Request: fold
Amino acid sequence: MKGLILSGGKGTRLYPLTYTRAKQLIPVANKPVLVRVIEAIREAGVREIGIVVGHTAPEIKDALGDGANWNVELTYIRQDSPDGLAHAVKISRDFLGDDSFVMFLGDNVIEGGISRLIRDFADNNWNSQIVLKAVGNPSAYGVAEMRPDGSIKRLIEKPDRPPSNLALVGIYMFDRHIFEAVDSIAPSARGEYEITDAIQWLIDQGYSVYPHVHKGWWIDTGKPTDMLEANSYVLEEIEPKIDASAEIDANSTVDSRVTVQAGARIVNSVLRGPTVIGKDTCIENSYIGPFTSVYHGCEIRNCEIERSIILENSRLLDIDQTLRDSLIGRNATVKRSDSKPSGIKMNLGDHGTLWV
Reply:
């Protein structure tokens, strides 16, 4: 079996952060979402992985290389225009050959990994397996209409009147018959080759499409609120660790749910987890509260921060109100001014400076 990760798209819902960064490389709990996807596929025993890339291909290639750091072999597949998920499958045929494969959207984070799904697919004679999840807003997704026996009757892409609340999660398993399907469908009203149409073709032709309803959490990290939610979930899962090279002075309090990475310095501060502090970051005279990720090379002095994501090399200085529910981009600077708002909430782009 092979893996196929879809990592194109412009990430417009995450602007301004994604003006200058591929959305799949934004970290959750200090690890890029795309790396988490690669690790989930590898842990399921799949080593050959193709990554479909678009205009952010140079940045993704620079970050991931040939995959050796994660004990996988990466092949990059260029998709020149965002023509749909089924189109991404179609252009990946040379890489996939006749092998079965798992397809994973590169901006998805899911609880529990996919090892069981891969094992179930390998042990059965299904032509496809799709992962479904009950959601509160099914009209925003591809939705499955089920028969009384639990099989799939039809799939509908972003329906105005959803027949169920079961959305396609963005994790699929296919055998070689999917290529017949993607060659047989026409573009949708959106002008894209929809993977829901391709799977529906398989169903209509009598192929076996098995639904797996995921009971755990799942996040499509397409919006800032989704990133913060995914960050919170993952922080609760990771095993806390304080690197031997980190410095924590006697005036600081760091609870047992905090991860402090190599070279970080904690001075006269309180850290309450689940929280992660990145490499070579300095926290001084500050409070870092639960569900916060501070990435590498940051400087935080005289601040209080809760449930936020701070990207690399940013500086937060002398803020006299609690910063919460916020995403701060790379190389950004946030400082105090004379005005004193009662609270702060923001999505600050890379290289920005904001006086508050």
